[in-house]
UniProtKB/TrEMBL annotation:
Its EC number is 3.1.3.1. Keywords: Cell membrane, Glycoprotein, GPI-anchor, Hydrolase, Lipoprotein, Magnesium, Membrane, Metal-binding, Zinc. Homodimer. The active site is at 131 (phosphoserine intermediate). This is Alkaline phosphatase. It is found in: Cell membrane. Zn(2+) 1 binds at residue 353. It is an enzyme of class 3 (hydrolase). Binds 1 Mg(2+) ion. It catalyses: a phosphate monoester + H2O = an alcohol + phosphate. Its cofactor is Mg(2+); Zn(2+). Pfam families: Alk_phosphatase. One of its GO terms (cellular component) is side of membrane.
Length: 545
């Protein structure tokens, strides 16, 4: 073998080693991801590095020509609230930098999904959408007005009398009616905009309990969202998130914060919805209510079929501020949810929301938002380890974007929360790579833009500068990404209306109105069932590797 050939082969091997490490976002080779990055930075100067990487990617892409047309036994939707494409890119860089890499070359778990589409997020009455109307679209298959959940565009926000007759049902209900187990996991309140569209029909997303409703709406017979969580779809198998105070009578103290009045119960009707759930579930021998991480992690999923977990009076804390002893992470909640739901031989539907990405952006706190996105990506990875692409369709998307972006000709490996490498050529002051189009980060001192170099611009709660002053930053109107893997994932391609998503997922699972194609003329399923033995073997192999 010639020296030239040996050198070329060695370079190709280094390229593949680095590619595999970038793919998993961590690598034990020589004990250091930083070492790998040092090698890669040298290799990147050689065209062979990029050609080898591209050829390897091409070979993987060619395997997708054989489409997965199995029936989806299980369906999982990961919804990053406010996770626009700039947020995805910045979260990717952050994920890599947290493991000692430059970041740009890192792969998020969602990046590894073989099929990607774009979703048009507008509401029927809004060019730039809100989370309620969009949730109705990607859960119920129908576009709707902003501020409304589980009702068609014929319903008008806050007008109770437009509710009846305009209700639309969700894919969670379709799955439940097909005999599947169903679950909701969120880092926000379980009666917030995103999860509520899975079970509620409400003309105002802010009607969390009857304590937030106008008296005339209550008198007219409209129901608050918390009440609908327990009444509309009997026995949702898994419910995890925040929102405890909306389940208890007004002025009842909270179990975790007994002396803090802002966390007291809000219900004017005097009902204790948690107690009602617990009493109703006594007939179900395997149900459990939990309100902290210790209780959650003590649950044996083999012995529990129904779980209600309410971990905060309101939203869960940001992941950066989470008490790791008492507050569960999104990943921990998702893992337990899947282990409970997957016991059903008919499969399951699970909605997972990384809801505080949105809150971080609204507050102009990009570091909080991006760490929330990285945590959701961690949960996506964990879900992939305990399910199989042969019988589980997984979709990752966002409801809308934000006025968030990053730029400024930053060099490779620049910390995502760092400064651009130049001063403004107008006011001769530095600026951070991350900026918002509007929001609370707009500050003027003595008529001039604030000098960010005098601030802790890498702090957890630093509010990035914005072009227009607003108390709360707004959503963005551009399309968002849809990542898909598993049975029929290839149907998510190109540019689609957002309401297309649940129709594809229902088609893959043969539920809802999408069942005719599942039966051949002889009555047998025309979609290929997944091979359980092969799927189990491959899942076990991934866990052992």
């Amino acid at each position: 073998m010639s020296a030239h050939f040996r050198e070329k082969e060695e370079k190709q091997n280094w390229a593949l080693i680095y590619w595999r490490c970038a793919e998993v976002s961590k690598c034990s080779y020589e004990g250091s991801a930083t070492f790998l990055w040092f090698i890669a930075s040298y290799q990147e100067k050689d065209p062979l590095f990029w050609n080898t990487w591209a050829q390897h990617t091409l070979k993987n892409a060619l395997t997708l020509q054989k489409l997965n047309q199995n029936t989806a036994k299980n369906l999982i939707l990961f919804l990053g609230d406010g996770m626009g494409i700039p947020t995805v890119t910045a979260a990717r860089i952050l994920k890599g930098q947290l493991s000692g890499q430059s970041g740009e070359e890192t792969q998020l778990e969602m990046d590894k999904f073989p099929f990607v589409a774009l979703s048009k997020t507008y509401n029927t009455n809004a060019q730039v959408a809100d989370s309620a109307g969009t949730a109705t679209a990607y859960l119920c298959g129908v576009k709707a007005n902003e501020g409304t959940v589980g009702v068609s565009a014929a319903a008008v926000r806050s007008q109770c009398n437009t509710t009846q007759g305009n209700e639309v049902t969700s894919i969670l209900r379709w799955a439940k009616e097909a005999g599947k187990s169903v679950g909701i996991v969120t880092t926000t309140r379980v009666n917030h905009a995103t999860p509520s569209a899975a079970y509620a029909h409400c003309v105002d997303r802010d009607w969390f309990s009857d304590g937030e409703m106008p008296a005339e709406a209550v008198q007219a017979g409209c129901k608050d969202i918390a009440r609908q969580l327990f009444e509309n779809i009997p026995n949702i198998d898994v419910i995890m998130g925040g929102g405890r105070k909306y389940m208890f009578p007004k002025n009842q103290s909270d179990v975790e914060y007994p002396g803090d009045k802002k966390h007291f119960g809000t219900r004017k009707d005097g009902r204790n919805l948690v107690e009602e759930w617990t009493n109703r579930m006594k007939n179900k021998v395997s149900s459990q209510y939990v309100w902290n991480k210790r209780e959650l992690l003590s649950v044996n999923p083999n012995n529990v079929d129904y779980i209600l977990g309410l971990f905060e009076p309101g939203d869960l804390p940001y992941n950066l501020e989470r008490n790791t002893e008492t507050d569960p992470s999104l990943t921990e909640m998702v893992e337990l949810a899947i282990k409970i739901l997957r016991k059903n031989p008919r499969g399951f539907y699970l909605l997972v929301e990384g809801g505080r990405i949105d809150h971080g952006h609204h507050e102009g706190k990009a570091k909080q938002a991006l760490h929330e996105a990285v945590e959701m990506d961690r949960a996506i990875g964990r879900a992939g380890l305990i399910t199989s692409i042969y019988d589980t369709m997984t979709v990752v998307t966002a409801d809308h974007s934000h006025m968030f972006n990053f730029g400024g000709y930053t060099p490779r490996g620049n910390t995502i929360f760092g400064l651009a490498p130049m001063l403004s050529d107008v006011d001769q002051k530095p600026f951070t790579a991350i900026l918002y189009g509007n929001g609370p980060g707009f500050k003027v001192i003595n008529g001039l833009r604030e000098n960010v170099s005098t601030l802790d611009y890498q702090g957890n709660n630093y509010q990035a500068q914005s072009a227009v002053p607003l108390r709360m930053e707004t959503h963005g109107g551009e399309d968002v990404a849809v990542f898909a893997k598993g049975p029929m994932a290839h149907l998510l391609h190109g540019v689609h209306e957002q309401n297309y998503i649940p129709h594809v997922m229902a088609y893959a699972a043969c539920i809802g109105q999408n069942r005719d194609h599942c039966m051949s003329s002889g009555g047998a399923s025309s979609l290929s069932p997944a091979l359980p033995s092969l799927a189990a073997l491959l899942t076990l192999t991934r866990l052992l590797c």
